[in-house]
Amino acid sequence: MSTASAGPVLGVDTATGRPGLALVEGDVVLAEIAFHRRVSPSRTLMPSLRFVLEQLGLELGGLAGMAVTVGPGSFTGIRVGLATLRGLAQGSGKPLAGVSTLAALAGSYAGVAPHVAAWLDAGRGEIYAALMRPDSGLGSEQVAAPSSVLASLPAVPILFVGDGAMRHAPLIRARGVAGDAIAGAPPLLAAATARLGREALAAGQPRPARASYLRPPDATRARA
Question: Using the 8-state DSSP alphabet, how is residue 62 labeled?
Answer without folding.
Answer: G
